[in-house]
Every structure is written in structure tokens, then in C-alpha cells.
Amino acid sequence: MITQAQKTTSTKLIMGNPAPPLEVSTLNGGVWKLIDQAPEQYTMVVFYRGSHCPVCQQHIIDLNRKLDAFKKLGVSAIAISGDTQEQTKQFQEKASLQQVTIGYGLTPEEMRHWGLYLSQGHFEHEPALFSEPALFLIKPDNRLYFANIGTHPFSRVDFDFLLQGLEYIIPRNYPFRGTEWD
């Protein structure tokens, strides 16, 4: 058995570098590809734990409500989890998510590639393995601009605060941060 001390860490993603590849099936029947996105300012990728998580449900509902405000700033968005298509469809219907694009079926390998923290399910309603929440902003040229990678359901970006930040940084052409790692 591998102990916690024996596990290795994932590679840290560096801002300003190209984002890892990302292709995911969506509930609209298509395949969403990060490389094909052409937002005015940013593509926002919101990874959520899954439909089993009530905090995630609230968070994605909040994103859905604020999607127009993000669009006005030139930000497109997608919410993605490792849930199955059926679980994701039930979540969409239960939460009345009409605007936000929702991707499903993210694999553990893809989660690790993005540097997401993974957790084993400990409760009956949880999947065997799932990612913890994260949010990324990616520039139109596919370079990583912003990352917030959480380890628990309550470690996520507040969308109102993010909107305020974007309103400040976009007109000022704010530089990349988090580019130094040595």
C-alpha cells in the first residue's frame, strides 16, 4: 500500500505557458475543445467535484446566474466534472441550468494533467474518485492567465469577486502573475 508520504505531487502549471489540452463532451451533444475557443478576453474553465456536492451545485447555479456579466467582459465559460452524462443531465435539470455549458466525463488522468487535487469518495453518495474544485482563466492565445486550485469543497473563487477583479484588470492589460517558480 502506498502511504501519503510516498505519493508524488503533480507538476505545477505556470502562468503564461500554454494550457494543457482539454476536450470534453457536453450536454448539448458536442465536444468542447479548449484550443477551438476564441473569447474576446478569457475562457473560464470551472472544474467542480460533481453533482454529489451541494456546494458545487450552489457554485454552478451562481455561475449560471452571472454568465451574462462574464460575457459582457469578454469571458466565455464552461463547468466540467468527472460525472457521467446521466448524472450531469440530472444535475442540469435539477438546478435549472439554462446558460452555462456543462462538460462531463473528465478522467482522473485529465484531472491530474490540469494539476487538480483528487479525492477518494468516503461517503455513500460520493463517487470512488473525483477532483476538487478549480478555476482557470485562459487567454485567447491559449496561455494560462489565472489558476485557483482547491483541496476542499469550500475552496473556490467567489464569482462576484472575480467579476470585480476582471473589471479592474482587463482595461489595464494586467500582467501575468505566478510566472516565477524557481
Provide an overview of this structure.
The protein has a 7-stranded mixed sheet, covered by helices on one side. It has a two-stranded antiparallel ribbon with strand order 6-7. It starts with 22 loop residues before the first strand and ends in a 10-residue tail after the last helix. Helices cover 27% and strands 22% of the residues. The longest helix is centred in the middle third of the chain and has 19 residues, at 54-72. The radius of gyration is 16 Å and the shape is globular. The mean pLDDT is 91. It has helices at residues 54-72, 85-95, 108-113, 159-172; strands at 23-26, 31-33, 42-47, 75-80, 101-104, 118-120, 129-131, 134-138, 144-149. It has one domain (42-172): Glutaredoxin (3-Layer(aba) Sandwich), CATH 3.40.30.10. With 182 residues, it is an alpha+beta fold. Strand 1 (23-26) and strand 2 form a beta hairpin.
